[in-house]
Task: structure prediction
Amino acid sequence: MKHSAVFVLVLAATGPVQAAGISDDVVRIGVLTDLSGAYSGNVGPGSVLATRLAIEDVGGNVLGKPVEMLSADHLNKTDVAAGRAREWMDREKVDVITELGNSAVALAVMNIAREKRRMTMVTGAGAMRITGEDCAPTNVQWVYDTYALAKVGTLPLVESGARKWYFVTADYAFGHSLEADGARFVKQGGGTVLGSARYPFPGNDFASFLLSAQASGADAVAFASAGADLQNEIKQAREFGLADRQRLVAMLMSIADVHGVGLEAAQGMTFAETFYWDMDDETRAFARRFRQASGKMPTALQAGQYSAVLSYLRAVEKAGSDDVEAVMNALRSMKIHDAFARNARLRADGKLIHDTYVVQVKTPEESKGPWDYYRIVKTIPGDQAFVPLAESQCKLAKGGS
Result:
């Protein structure tokens, strides 16, 4: 593939062999991510690095067997992702494929993995279908979903007076899901949705969509998008003067996006986040390692990737095997705690339940130094942020398979 990249990391095994439950005598992790497109700043090379850091933290081996990491660019194309996933599973004997930062890509790959009895760990995609109606017993959704983003990022704004909303939405599964969940909570809070405009993903020129939003008279203009698209939308919205009379709302924003647009443009924006590097000693320690290797602070998705891979390797250790059913059972029985997840738990539908945060971007004057961008306004416990299991569309939540 012309634009794909494959990296292999083999960390030598140390210590005595403890079990014979590792297939091919190697634990193989495939990181299938966006290395060159609109989402590469939020995931991409940083998620590959996060995976390497997690492997290092278990000493490069599990049960006395070495851990291998492969990575490739899915180019945000389902056919490319599906082809790579099949190749990895059939020829490279990859045990788990992770990251999958694009909802359409994630849905395609997790179905292939289910057919082949391999595992997927979605850390970069948020469509509700992933752990909803399309859930699989071999898949987990680790970092976020559109329900949690919309609920945590929308309801407080409606309650504070932003009653009329307009959505500018990426026209694919993730954008549709984010808009639908956002509209749901706007209405639940007593607000109204005046309309929406869907643009073809990825986009560059958002002028017509932003002018429609401006003309709508909405109190809040919500961007149901992410990555480079979101950054361009914010910059262009500022240029067109939307921020003078309307509140700009990011339904999914990361520290990389704030860094990309700058504090001058992003200041005051409030949204849902799942990680911030400057929360406590544990987050700062991980962030220092990450920044030393990359020159940047980790996004929530990259921190979540670290957490997912570390937890997978711990689960293999606990299960005494890399068999997908044994690993999934171990994950569900474990208390998940690391720099990203605090006393989190994995539900029957494959969703990791963990705290989510309402953050506000600081003004340039408030920022005390590089990457000092967020103020944590509120912590929302996981059982309040994510959809209740009783409302889940996943048949696994109801005892199905």
About this structure: The chain has a mean pLDDT of 92. Residues 272 and 358 are 5 Å apart (CA to CA). DSSP finds 14 helices and 16 strands in the chain.
